[in-house]
Design brief:
6-stranded parallel sheet
């Protein structure tokens, strides 16, 4: 699912067991150019590619929130050669992916807002960006799912991801 200069709301979906090629702009959900997005309350599970791939240039506000990304090749990739400060990533759980958050193009002045996310147990939690654990409310602790092995990603009452 994706587009160039799209305006989209993607909410309350389960994206599971998808594949895609390895081109840098491919992904389960992949948007480019001037897209404005709301990606909220989705589960991305066991995808053999990038789950959320963002290469937005001069876009308006895009919010990626309350998503659970588990066992993907890369959970979230952001191309930051443009100013991506209007991309807001908050309250997401990135767990057991090969790579949690990957930021490419290496422009440290153009990183997205990354707040109150849980990034834990990935092969690499952060690639191309400094580890954000302990900054802006981001944590790196077991999310304590109800039953990870059975794909029950509801949070237990004692979960580190609550509040």
């Amino acid at each position: 699912m994706g587009g160039n200069s799209a305006h989209a709301a993607i909410e309350a979906n389960i994206f599971r067991n998808n594949t895609c090629d390895r081109r840098k702009f491919s992904g389960v959900v992949s948007f480019n150019l001037k897209s404005k997005l709301l990606i909220n309350n989705n589960v991305f599970e066991n995808n053999a590619c990038i789950a959320i791939n963002m290469a937005l240039s001069k876009s308006g506000l895009s919010i990626i929130a309350n998503n659970t990304l588990v066992a993907n090749r890369t959970a979230i990739r952001v191309d930051n050669r443009y100013n991506v400060s209007q991309q807001v990533f908050l309250n997401n759980i990135l767990f057991k992916n090969d790579v949690g958050l990957e930021v490419t193009q290496q422009s440290s002045t153009n990183n997205p807002a990354w707040d109150n996310n849980l990034v834990f147990g990935n092969g690499t939690n952060y690639r191309g960006i400094d580890d954000l654990t302990g900054k802006f409310g981001n944590i790196s602790k077991d999310p304590q799912f109800a039953d990870f092995e059975l794909g029950d990603y509801r949070l237990r009452a004692d979960s580190n991801a609550i509040d």
